[in-house]
């Protein structure tokens, strides 16, 4: 019997980790707490490092085919004037791909389709982890009788904690860690219910303590998001009307995007991040991945990309070392410095961008952006997106999860 792993969480990072582990010969069981995979979340942009990670996992071509390249757009002011323009063609020349936009539900579906259906157990919750005498991990799980969980105990050689920003696994492993902190910003977002004739692939507009942006998709629909400085926990009876009022008078296509969304489709989430870095991404035979390890603000568009990097590096480390513990040490040594540095950079980008609200500070920011050399934006993107993944073995054999 080969090595087997339990992945906690069926988000982007968890599914990618499962794909990577199977490619290097592991048997994998993915346990997802949610009873229904509704793929909440409107849209997502993937930079070159995310696409390269998906290529290493064998699903890059499928994701590209379902995506729309972000060649045109950039950053604007509420009156429509440009602060910086996007040059997706230059990015493609430099990195082999532009940034691409894709509905989150589509990305989730493509990742799930790369796994055997029996790998995924939905509606079951991991309630505890115990170390066995052989150094493995005994996963305690609970779920109703119809979720496909044959036993409440699964012995695993590895547990991958990909259970998100509010990770219960992280809280159990690091009881003294303060956990995620509120960033000071909240985001409302939705998909349009019909295609729109948009003049650009991607835009963000910065006002005073507010950002409005859109991502255009291959089918003509788009995602819009509105980010606001706000106390945590504030919710609205009619969030779409609140966004209309807050962004009234902003340039086109802001009004058209809002008019194309249904009120019930608007999602509202406070943005949390790990401002206190973890001392390790590994505890025993448990590896933390994605938001569970390094939740960051979305200001650089790197959250999902860093989770995908995690997945590939973890699989490659396990393929290169016959010793699981050594492989996990290598994973931590490679991923923690980079992911935590990107987390800090994303926080700084938010504070210098969307979160600025004082008129003088906003005016200085806008002047600096207009005066910046044309290649400044490109260099900033390349700083984080120019990443080369380790290679993984070819397509995996058909393996099924082992439940003991």
Describe the 3D structure:
There is one protein chain. The chain is globular. The C terminus is likely disordered. The chain is built from 13 helices and 19 strands. Helix 1 packs parallel to helix 10, helix 2 runs parallel beside helix 10 and helix 10 packs antiparallel against helix 11. The chain has 404 residues and is of the alpha/beta class. It has a domain of 225 residues: FAD/NAD(P)-binding domain (3-Layer(bba) Sandwich), CATH 3.50.50.60. Strand 15 and strand 16 form a beta hairpin. It has a 7-stranded mixed β-sheet with strand order 6-5-14-15-16-13-17.
CATH superfamily of the domain at 4-69 and 100-180 and 274-351: FAD/NAD(P)-binding domain
- If you compute it from the alpha carbons, what radius of gyration comes out, rounded to the nearest whole angstrom? 21 Å
How does CATH name the architecture of the domain at 4-69 and 100-180 and 274-351? 3-Layer(bba) Sandwich
Q: What's the total helix number?
A: 13
